[in-house]
Amino acid sequence: MGLASLASGCGGARSAKPLNLKGIIVFQRQGKAPAGACFSTCPEDTYVVRPGNQEVKLGASLTFAQQLRYFGSWSRDRRRAVMLGCSGRCIQTFDLAVRGRRVIRRCGGQNRCYAAPAISPDGSIIAFLDTRGDPSISVVQFDGAGVRSIVYHYPPGGVGSASVACPVFSPNGAWIAYQDNLGVIKHPGQSEEDGSSIRVVHPDGKGDRAVTHWRAGFTDGCPVWAPDEQILAYSESAPPGTDKDFHIYEIAVAEGAKAKLLTDVPGDRPTYSPNGRAIAFVRFYPDHRDIEVAVGSKLYRVTNPGERGVDGDPAWVR
Known about the structure:
By secondary structure, the protein is mainly β. It has a single domain (4-317), classed as 6 Propeller (Neuraminidase). It is 4% helix and 45% strand. The protein is built from 2 helices and 26 strands. The protein has a 5-stranded mixed sheet, with no helix packed on it. Strands 17, 18, 19, 20 and 21 form a 5-stranded antiparallel sheet that branches. A hairpin with a 6-residue loop joins β11 (136-141) and β12 (148-151). The radius of gyration is 19 Å and the shape is globular.
């Protein structure tokens, strides 16, 4: 089941020590920004924390094994994985059966050309973003053969801009959820009205449809699947000037489903616990951002970056 029916009233209540939850949360911590500085300008270190325990700093330079464990996309049996390499210029795979890694996609030049590789639960297919030009979603077999584009969106009427982001396989491998970004120009000479929605598509490129619907100024951010395969969580931000922050929502993938507010505090980047009973996210405060966990009707703080500190990009891993 989803968490929306359990955690929508969690408000500002927090506890220092959450329930005994399996897995660890890996996240990025930026150095403390000077007063008034942009949150995104400071260097980052990688940390890990088991909810209810002390956070551990891994640093900025990780071994290949650490990168693979914490940032790789793994098959269900944990025998195959995929990860970006070459500073975003190649995609590399790892096969535990032969204890070997190989580069299956590479581009020339100095610019990043790939992003967000994700492996199917059975380890046979990899989905990734091709960021050359307007980003599109492509799939390729684990051995690097048979690459093809399955999602490449155009703005309505061909006027404006379009891109996609954050492809992620459902736990049964039947769907790929992703973020669809559109900049629509409704009338000649007017500026674009930007927005993003969540969509799903089968790995063969068929069945592409909306889960949430595009609205000018609203950003439905990178989706994540609940373990039960029926629900997606995502963050939504409202247009500037509306006095609304980012909030976390859940929505069933079934057609016609309506989104439910998961947390009534400002937050971003949700990630489910392995059993789906809890969800971690970045909580926004005026002077810092930390990682908190929603369990039932309660919120638990699991990191403490200090004043002007910024914790972000949490991922709950086994």
